[in-house]
Amino acid sequence: xxxxxxxxxxxxxxxxxxxxxxxxxxxxxxxxxxxxxxxxxxxxxxxxxxxxxxxxxxxxxxxxxxxxxxxxxxxxxxxxxxxxxxxxxxxxxxxxxxxxxxxxxxxxxxxxxxxxxxxxxxxxxxxxxxxxxxxxxxxxxxxxxxxxxxxxxxxxxxxxxxxxxxxxxxxxxxxxxxxxxxxxxxxxxxxxxxxxxxxxxxxxxxxxxxxxxxxxxxxxxxxxxxxxxxxxxxxxxxxxxxxxxxxxxxxxxxxxxxxxxxxxxxxxxxxxxxxxxxxxxxxxxxxxxxxxxxxxxxxxxxxxxxxxxxxxxxxxxxxxxxxxxxxxxxxxxxxxxxxxxxxxxxxxxxxxxxxxxxxxxxxxxxxxxxxxxxxxxxxxx
Length: 381
Fold this sequence. Notes:
It is a single chain. Helix 1 packs parallel to helix 8 (248-258), helix 2 (27-37) packs parallel to helix 3 and helix 6 runs parallel beside helix 8. The chain is 35% helix and 14% strand. The protein is built from 12 helices and 13 strands. The chain has helices at residues 2-14, 27-37, 55-61, 107-117, 171-176, 186-201, 208-220, 248-258, 261-281, 307-316, 347-353, 367-375; strands at residues 21-24, 45-49, 52-53, 66-70, 92-98, 120-124, 132-133, 136-137, 144-148, 161-165, 299-303, 329-330, 356-360. It folds into 3 domains: 2-180, Aspartate Aminotransferase, domain 2, CATH 3.40.640; 186-246, no CATH class; 261-379, Alpha-Beta Complex (Aspartate Aminotransferase, domain 1), CATH 3.90.1150.10. It is an alpha/beta fold. The strands form 4 sheets. A 7-stranded mixed beta sheet has the order 1-10-9-6-5-2-4, sandwiched between helices. Strands 3-12 form a two-stranded parallel sheet. A two-stranded antiparallel sheet has the order 7-8. A hairpin with a 2-residue loop joins strand 7 and strand 8.
């Protein structure tokens, strides 16, 4: 019954019915599920921005389909809408709309184009839960949307994710896949419970950098449950037992976390407003104020001249900065061709990925962050 309670709470935020919500081990599994339910197969093409996490094209490649990348717009970090229509072929089946850092953009135009060519649309809401686009919840517009509840997402269950299906014709195909989900092991449940406790009681500004490095080192080698398994960062074959369901550990954590979403999102917007005001005052790059209405601000993007130096200084001064996106296929920085992406074909995404870092938006007091920026203002673009 707790899974139904969890779905109902999610549905309240998304203003939908609980039977439209499906729960998974990770958000990328939800993406794989909806692509499979849409009948995506070998040779089909899925359009997506060339500024995303590597697990997104992985879900496409696991079905032997082809990711077709579009460069992004520098003002909103989402796909350049002017490039969309020319990228559609007779093999195109899906357009993936991403709300990067919680910012949705150009959805109406994308939907018009998709309707013209009879294509499915999926909204990547891994950054956008709890936010709105033109008055409706992120994820409301497309045939389906997938969400992540991993660390550093709008609300966290350690790892986890879910799917929202808006197209009634896709409900049954998704439901038929439910009995194919692998059940997580007892060991996975115990490990995840331990990680959630460690995150709650041990991570602070003094331990952040050390524990972050350790966590990524262990998860990359599959020695611990992590956001990314090692093979997800090194190859394009589907990992063993990838199509996995959710655990009671994640459901319990999610129910607690959902009660905090509204207050945290208010804090995110307040901090982002302060960052914007500061950057404007220093004549630096900032998020266009015309976009703020539709921006959740999961993280605040900042352009810098020397990212490695900034990270070094931040670690030294105990400032918790983020590193989304280190490359057009975060966090992979080499051999992007095996995912079908050539950096030189996407100059905007490539250049931004070399300069971007993220300011925290969920801090109760941003004075330390702003003072850090003041101190190193010459390193900010």
